[in-house]
Specification:
Structural class: mainly alpha
Strand content: under 5%
Largest sheet: none
Number of domains: 1
Helix content: 55-70%
Shape: flat
Number of strands: 0
Distance between the termini: 49 Å
Length: 74
């Protein structure tokens, strides 16, 4: 099985002419960079740039005041 993996999978293109690192680079440089710009713009305009609002609110609801590791801030 190891020989087969080495022979048939290692070094194989994931898509024609592309290894995984190329796919990740193209995704990051194209779609993901555009997504991040739009998301950042929306966050700035809608919630004053704050991130993870829902998660911060959930943490506050679920933490036990006074318990180690349950502090509100670092």
């Amino acid at each position: 099985m190891a020989d087969r993996v080495e022979r048939e999978l290692l070094g194989r293109n994931v898509l024609p002419g592309r290894w995984t690192f190329r796919i990740v680079e193209e995704f990051h440089d194209g779609y993901y960079t555009g997504f991040l710009e739009i998301e950042r713009d929306a966050r700035e305009k809608l919630v004053d740039g704050r991130r993870h609002i829902y998660e911060a609110e959930m943490k506050e609801r679920r933490r036990t005041h006074g318990m180690p590791g349950h502090e509100a801030t670092p």
